[in-house]
Amino acid sequence: MEARPRPGLLVLAYLAFVSLGLPDAVLGLAWPSIREAFGLPQAALGAVLATAATAYFFSGLLAGRFILAAGIGTLLAASTGLVTLGIAGYASAPAFAFFLTAACFIGFGSGAVDSGLNTHAARHFGARHMTWLHAAYSAGAALGPVLMTALLTRGAGWRAGYVAIAGVLGLLALAFTVRRGQWDSGPAPRAGDAEAGKPRVTAWATLRRPRVWLQIAIFFFYCGVEVTAGQWSYTVLTESRGVGSTAAGTWVSLYWASLLAGRVLLGFIVERVGSVRLLRLSTVAAVAGALLFALPGAPAALGLAVLGFALAPIFPGLMSETPRRVGVDASTHAVGFQVSAATLGVAVIPSVAGLLGGWLGLTAIAPLVVLCAVVLAVFHEVLVAAADRPT
Fold first, then answer.
1. pLDDT tens string 69-114
2. How far apart (Å, rounded) are the C-alpha atoms in residues 8 and 79?
3. Per-residue CA distances from 286 to 114, 243, 373 (Å)
4. pTM here?
5. Higher-confidence position of 380 and 325
6. pLDDT interval class at 5 (50, 70, 90)
7. CA–CA separation, 91 vs 85, rounded Å?
8. Which end of the chain has fewer CB within 10 Å, C or N?
9. Residue 142 CB: number of other CB atoms within 10 A?
């Protein structure tokens, strides 16, 4: 029988996922004001995103070593403090160079927090809570823009928005510091984790396991599909298919709302259906949703809704299954590698979509989403077959 997670740590984990999402969707909203404050061109936003993403990527690669050296509790406390410093740096930066430095702090700290929380949750919380934890992240990503919009409309300015977010993250860092010892002395790993007593392997030994590379590839394509569909669908609908801006905006909002709703609703059934079965159904449904969005004459709005709902349990489900699929002894490093792969997918596939859109026209973007969804489904089936064989 699965051990119950400590209620205090579980609540703190939910708050942490909400807080992790808070700053992620705020930058785009605040960017016009930031650009005006520093006298920047529009393209400078790319420098901020690239700096944060690069730091996030390398943080995920190193997270396993940090966890084994200092423990998850210390990593979470220190990394959340680093993110708090970065957000405070956004709020107080006197020049753009300082703003970019702060982005590096935020990316590195966020990557470590993401890896640490997912490592602990994968081993102790089970598929249901893992799914809801990622729903909490989505809720935080939705709340961030609401907070920034409220402050901007009241004339408080973008710096005040980042001060408020830094205050929330500072409280979270304090909570992590107070309870840092409990993360590493929590309940035993989940039932079925027969390898829990084995010594954890090194990062290089982890990378010698084929299943780890399969998981890395799946996370790369999953995040590429999620972000490409979310970021490019509005442009495709309005500039390629003649959909009105109001309707297109509503359909894109429906996509993100379906992603959040899927994580909330499917969390109730994931342990009853089984995480592996739900993942297999979801990857197939994601292909169907992508096809509905891509095919001429098909209901694109329905396609986006199906795609969002289908994608909802994939990231948390894959994280939850990581200890079983790659081995508990390798999972500490593997989770960090998966976080880095997800970051790389967010950076690469939407960029490829933009290049294809410029070269072949915007009509090429939706088929790219279909192709990546198919690769995701095929790779997951290969992983399921591999996981049925002994490690």
1. 888 889 889 999 999 999 999 999 999 999 999 999 999 999 998 8
2. 20
3. 24, 23, 6
4. 0.82
5. 380
6. low
7. 10
8. N
9. 16
Query: Helix/strand/coil (H, E, C) string of 256-312?
Result: HHHHHHHHHHHCCCHHHHCHHHHHHHHHHHHHHHHHHHHCCCCCHHHHHHHHHHHHC
Say how far residue 389 (Cα) sits from the centre of its chain.
29
Question: What is the CA 214 to chain-centroid distance, rounded?
Answer: 18
Structure tokens of 81?
Answer: 């403090």
Q: Which residue has the tokens 């992590």?
A: 176
The residue assigned the tokens 């529009």 is 42
Structure tokens of 355? 């290049």
Q: How far apart are CA 303 and CA 243, in angstroms?
A: 15
Among 61, 87, 9, CA closest to 344: 61
- Tell me how long the chain is: 391
Residue 45 has pLDDT above 60, yes or no: yes
Q: Which residue stretches of the chain are H helix?
A: 7-21, 27-38, 44-70, 72-92, 96-124, 126-153, 158-178, 203-207, 210-235, 245-266, 270-273, 275-294, 300-311, 314-326, 328-360, 365-387
Specify the residue for token string 């298919």.
241
Cα-based torsion angle of the residue sequence 200, 202, 208, 212 in order, rounded to the nearest 10 degrees: 60
**pLDDT one-digit tens code per residue, 290-306:** 999 999 888 989 999 99
- Measured distance between the N- and C-terminal CA atoms of the chain, rounded to whole angstroms: 23
DSSP one-letter code for 363: G
Which residues, other chains included, contact 372 with Cβ-Cβ below 8 Å and sequence gap of 6+?
221, 224, 225, 228, 349
All domains of the chain in start order, with CATH: 7-184 (1.20.1250.20), 203-386 (1.20.1250.20)
Closest CA to 69 of 184, 173, 172: 184
- Nearby residues of 67 by Cβ (< 8 Å), 6 or more positions away: 75, 115, 116, 119, 332, 336
Q: What is the pLDDT of residue 195?
A: 46
Average model confidence (pLDDT) across the chain: 86
DSSP conformation class of 239: I
